[in-house]
Design goal:
By secondary structure, this protein is of the alpha+beta class. The protein is about 35% helix and about 10% strand. The chain has a three-stranded antiparallel sheet with strand order 1-2-3.
Length: about 120
C-alpha cells in the first residue's frame, strides 16, 4: 500500500461535538449535529494564527498567557460552525467563540485534541 491509499492532507476538518458524559453527538433543536469546522496544522490559516502570536504582547501570568495563546490560535482556525446554546443557532463571531470556549471548556478541549490527530486532516 502506498501513501496515495492514505490520502493527502487537507486544510479543514468537520468536528462533531460530543457529550463528554456519553460520547454521543450533540444535536441542535432542528435535529442537525453540532459541528465546528476548523483549519488544521497543515493549513496556511493555522500557520498564520501561530505566527501572529509571535508579535502579541505576553501577559505577566504564565498560565493566563498559555490559555490566551491557545484560545487565539483556536479562534484563528475556525472556518464555520453549526452550534446552538439554547434553541436558537449561535451565529459565529469572535465574541461568540470566546464565550463558547470559555463557558463550555469541554467543547474547546474536543477541538484542541483534533489538532494533534492528523487523521482528521487526511483527504
Amino acid at each position: 500500500m502506498g501513501l496515495e491509499a492514505i490520502g493527502k492532507s487537507k486544510d479543514t476538518a468537520v468536528i462533531e461535538i460530543k457529550d463528554p458524559r456519553t460520547g454521543t453527538v450533540v444535536q441542535n433543536a432542528d435535529g442537525s449535529n453540532m459541528t465546528i469546522t476548523v483549519y488544521g496544522p497543515y493549513s496556511s490559516k493555522y500557520k498564520r494564527a501561530i505566527y501572529d502570536l509571535s508579535d502579541a504582547e505576553r501577559p505577566k501570568d504564565a498560565v493566563d498567557a498559555y490559555e490566551e495563546r491557545g484560545l487565539q490560535v483556536l479562534l484563528g482556525c475556525i472556518e464555520s460552525w453549526n452550534i446552538s446554546i439554547t434553541e436558537e443557532p449561535l451565529e459565529f463571531s469572535v465574541d461568540a467563540a470566546k464565550m463558547l470556549f470559555t463557558d463550555y471548556r469541554w467543547v474547546r478541549a474536543q477541538i484542541e485534541t483534533v489538532f494533534s490527530d492528523s487523521s482528521y486532516f487526511l483527504g
